Amino acid sequence: MPREQFQRGLRDVEDGVLEMGSMVDRQLDRAMQALIDRDLPLADAVIRDDGEVNRTRFHLDNMCVSLLAQQAPMASDLRLIVAVLAMVSDLERMGDHAEGIAQIVLLTRDEPLVKPLVDLPEMAIQARQMLRDALDAFVDRDVESAYLVGRADDSVDALYERVYRDLIAIMTTDGATIEPCTHLLWIAHNLERIADRATNIAERVVFTVTGMLPEMDVSRY
Questions:
Q1: CB–CB of 140/14 below 8 Å?
Q2: Considering the domain 3-210, what is its CATH architecture?
Q3: Over the stretch 48-105, which tens digit does the pLDDT of each residue have?
Q4: How crowded is residue 215: how many other Cβ atoms within 10 Å of its Cβ?
Q5: N or C: more exposed end of the chain, with fewer CB within 10 A?
Q6: Backbone phi and psi for residue 116, each to the nearest 5 degrees, phi listed first
């Protein structure tokens, strides 16, 4: 593969990561809107469109493998390809978490809300911003901005802890609320994991630039 063609392939892969990131961001936005509005057709659409996110991930995987197979990349290019392989895996899982929220919307269609939807939408807003900031840092190769994404995860974790405590208190007071509270906990968990995966993407930005893979969030499991 001529060098110019290889570089064009790298640019196409980068563009693909940004496109996939936009798809995932939209999936999360629609999943949360479906939750807030109890919009079952919108939840169905999120579930249906998750297949496109998955197909994009495997397409980008194949592009990266092809680049590796056809030319021995220089160190910086190799780091980029390795980072992209990890990023698209995290983006695909973020899409799965958005789909999971949509699935819960369908599951809870007839359930009363046991807690106002205040903290969960805020978690989603912050997680989506972390994703966008991580992708911006990737475009700019901005290590400092990538580390800021990791620090922003603390705020999402704090919201998750508050949701968890509130729902446990509700369940303790009224056993009849256990099932609807559990469903809201699942949503909170999906949002918390989306933020963690945005942090993973930011870590890969640092790796792309420096060759070092930092551990930004020691609470991950």
A1: no
A2: Up-down Bundle (1.20)
A3: 999 999 999 999 999 999 988 877 778 888 999 999 999 999 999 999 999 999 999 9
A4: 9
A5: C
A6: -60, 145
